[in-house]
Amino acid sequence: MSMEERKAVRKSGIEARNSLTEEEKVSYSAAICEQVISLPEYQNAKTVLLYKWTKGETRLEELEKAAAADGKRVLYPLCVSDTEMAAIEPGKGKNAWRTGAYGITEPDSQYGTIAEPEEIDLVICPCTTFDENCHRMGIGAGYYDRYLAKCTNAAAVAVAFEVQKSAVIHVNDYDVPMEAVVTETSLYRAEKRRCSWSAEMNRADKAEELFRSGYNCGQSVFAAFADVVGMTETEAAKIASPFGAGFGKLREVCGAVSGMTLVAGYLGGYDDPADAEGKKALYALIQKMAGEFEERHGSIICRELLGLAKGEDLAEPAVRTEEYYQSRPCVAACRTAAEIAEKYLLGKSKNESGDVLASV
Questions:
Q1: How far separated are the first and last CA of the chain, in Å rounded?
Q2: Which residue, 69, 91, 199, 236, is the most exposed by fewest CB within 10 angstroms?
Q3: Is residue 330 left, alpha or beta, with left meaning phi > 0 and alpha meaning psi from -120 to 50?
């Protein structure tokens, strides 16, 4: 979706919101707050990030009252630059608030306490429009999308009026989907889990975390780059799901190697059947990446890495236990594959001549 098309979709949502009367906005907002309060995400949250509404947005008075009565820690966003925001627990008194960017009431950091993104359990997001797949659009500055990427322990729920719903929103790589969208009449649930990537976490750590959560080796490596390829973890994991135990448990090419080549194809592949140079360049890159994996582990073949004979161990997938993780090279293989993909595809390493490798 082009920038102009996104602007048109955003404008349509704002106009639909503005078509409501003040009485409707107040009434619908109360119904939305009541539904949010009933959500398990709210019930289980100790720290919530709300917002101060403006220009026709869903009003959160009832949610503020409930959160205070329930003893929850309530935070509000503060724009700290043209691109970034922080979460502040407001101070007390008349100086605790000020008018900030875009005319939004925000807490004054001099009188409040900054919270770390990892401390937040629930983020309530405003939006200009949304779709039934729980994609949202804000005002276009990207504040929430950037901040949500850091909120590794938080559920993200958008609130909006039903008239703001769009048929479909074509998302960009940086758009973060919601777990749910709440309107005055409906609750939309996302079937897809958003990527819990943290800027402080490297790709190898993420791949290991995913593998230990139960994903196979191909899923773990590919989903570790879900944010880069513009997918949720669930979408990436589904695409890579055959690539476990050498794809389909046939013990051929290691699933971790397959996972890193999927990343390479998505970020550096070609789509023109006549692009001979693109094909040549991609194959050379894959060979180089696979060669480095083989150099570190002695093989790229699953059965060889596990010391199995051909046709051995084609039964049901093994039960994951700590002994399983300790006795097999799979965790190390996932970490290596993620490191190699990050090195060659995200420009996080340099070659012998000092040139940054294949940054895309």
A1: 20
A2: 69
A3: alpha
Q: Is the distance from CB of 159 to CB of 186 less than 8 angstroms?
A: no
How many Å apart are CA 125 and CA 270, to the nearest integer?
37
Give 237's contacts (C-beta < 8 A, 6+ positions apart): 210, 215, 219, 222, 223
Answer whether 236's CB lies under 8 Å from 226's CB.
yes
Q: Are 216 and 241 in contact (CB under 8 A)?
A: yes
329: amino acid identity, one letter: P
Alpha helices by DSSP H, 102-241: 143-148, 203-212, 217-223, 226-229, 233-240
Distance CA 111, CA 290 (A): 54
Please give the single-letter amino acid code of residue 197: W
Task: State the Cα–Cα distance between residues 342 and 357, nearest whole angstrom.
Answer: 10
Closest Cα partner for 302 from 333, 325, 326, 267? 333
Q: List, in order, residues 6 or more apart from 322 with CB less than 8 Å away.
A: none
Fold of 3-189: Rossmann fold (3.40.50)
Phi, psi (degrees; rounded to nearest 5) at 83: -130, -20
Task: For residues 258 and 262, give the distance between their C-alpha atoms in angstroms, rounded to a whole number.
Answer: 6
Per-residue pLDDT tens, the chain, 360 aa: give them: 577 888 899 999 999 999 999 999 999 999 999 999 998 899 999 999 999 998 899 999 999 999 999 999 999 999 888 888 999 999 988 788 988 877 888 898 888 999 999 999 999 999 999 998 888 998 878 889 899 989 988 999 999 999 999 988 877 666 788 889 999 999 988 764 444 444 456 899 999 988 988 889 999 999 999 877 877 788 888 999 999 888 888 899 999 999 999 999 988 888 899 999 999 999 999 999 999 999 999 999 999 999 888 777 655 666 777 888 888 899 999 999 999 999 998 874 433 333 333 333
Where do the structural domains in the chain lie, given as residue ranges? 3-189, 203-345
